[in-house]
Design goal:
The chain is an alpha+beta fold. The chain folds into two domains: about 1-60, RNA-binding S4 domain (Structural Genomics Hypothetical 15.5 Kd Protein In mrcA-pckA Intergenic Region, Chain A, Roll); about 75-295, Pseudouridine synthase (2-Layer Sandwich). Helices cover about 20% and strands about 25% of the residues. Strand 10 and strand 11 form a beta hairpin.
């Protein structure tokens, strides 16, 4: 594909996204990084500012054969229609395949259950618009076609989606409400972790205390952004890590279920009808059992 730009200057990824709506900004940036997009036959970066009369060449590589297989894994389905499916993911299930973990994921289950899934992010992330961590339980929406995927992606980008979590954190939070506004990026000292870093991406988490115990606090959290490990990083940053968290929590409180973090409420505008819909999921049994144990210690 060949384009010629006429104008006063615009970022190349933004320009291509406007001219080629079938490509997302993420896909465009990936193509640039892999040198499939050039300007005047020169390799450029995603932040390149186009100049008048620049010639843009775009090569769309053939998709690599996928070994991701559909698997008959039970799904806890909260809602489903021709465009979307809302599922309650159990703790311990990875959302999509990755190196060394190509099966028993939510995507494997969705490929078996759904006849079609959106292909914007490829088969490995088929249908996936957003993710929650392996050891976080709760609600997640997937898309069955590219139309729904694009519509919902815009909502996530514009912070129009309601996402509320319940968590048990270590320590007793004295104040009833909190707002954490701290940028998150890769931990320079541990590549497996994220951290609050000066040059990280904007991240905002709001929380309120629901119940206090002797050494723990039950909180409800609402996200304004969706960074990797956001809640876990932010709560650890203010000194109240999520109980059971193997990466950011107290080592003496590691749980066989992972962190006590549950994506309880998910709300968005239906991509086809534009009607606001919201779903609420119950806490998993292991979460309730631990709460009852904490209540019994009072």
């Amino acid at each position: 594909m060949r384009l010629q730009y006429f104008g006063d200057g615009i970022r190349i990824d933004k320009y291509i996204a406007n001219e080629v709506p079938s490509l997302t900004r993420t896909q465009i940036q990936k193509l640039i990084n892999e040198e499939f997009i050039t300007v005047n036959d020169n390799i450029i970066k995603a932040n390149y500012i186009l100049k008048d009369s620049d010639i843009i060449n775009i090569i769309i590589p053939k998709p690599k054969p996928s070994k991701i297989e559909a698997q008959n894994i039970p799904l806890d389905i909260f809602y489903e229609d021709k465009d979307i499916i809302v599922v309650n993911k159990p703790s311990g299930m990875v959302v999509h395949p990755a190196a060394g973990n190509l099966d028993n994921t939510l995507v494997n289950a969705l490929l078996y259950h759904c006849k079609d899934l959106s292909g914007i992010n490829g088969r490995i992330r088929a249908g996936i618009v957003h993710r929650i961590d392996k050891d976080t339980s709760g609600l997640l929406v997937a898309c069955k076609n590219d139309f729904a995927h694009k519509k919902l992606s815009v909502q996530f980008a514009k912070k129009m989606v309601t996402r509320k979590y319940y968590a048990i954190c270590s320590g007793v939070i004295p104040h009833n409400l909190g707002r954490i506004d701290a940028p998150i990026g890769r931990n320079p000292n541990n590549r497996q972790q994220m951290a609050v870093v000066k040059d990280g991406k904007d991240a905002i988490t709001n929380f309120k205390v629901l119940e206090r115990f002797e050494n723990h606090t039950l909180i409800e959290l609402e996200l304004e952004t969706g960074r990797t490990h956001q809640i876990r990083v932010h709560m650890n940053y203010i000194g109240y890590p999520i109980t059971g968290d193997p990466l950011y929590g107290h080592k003496k409180e590691v749980s066989p279920y992972g962190q006590y973090l549950h994506a309880k409420t998910l709300g968005f505008y239906h991509p086809r009808t534009n009607e606001y819909i919201e779903f609420d999921s119950p806490l998993p049994n292991f979460f309730e059992e631990f709460l009852n144990k904490l209540r019994g210690s009072l």
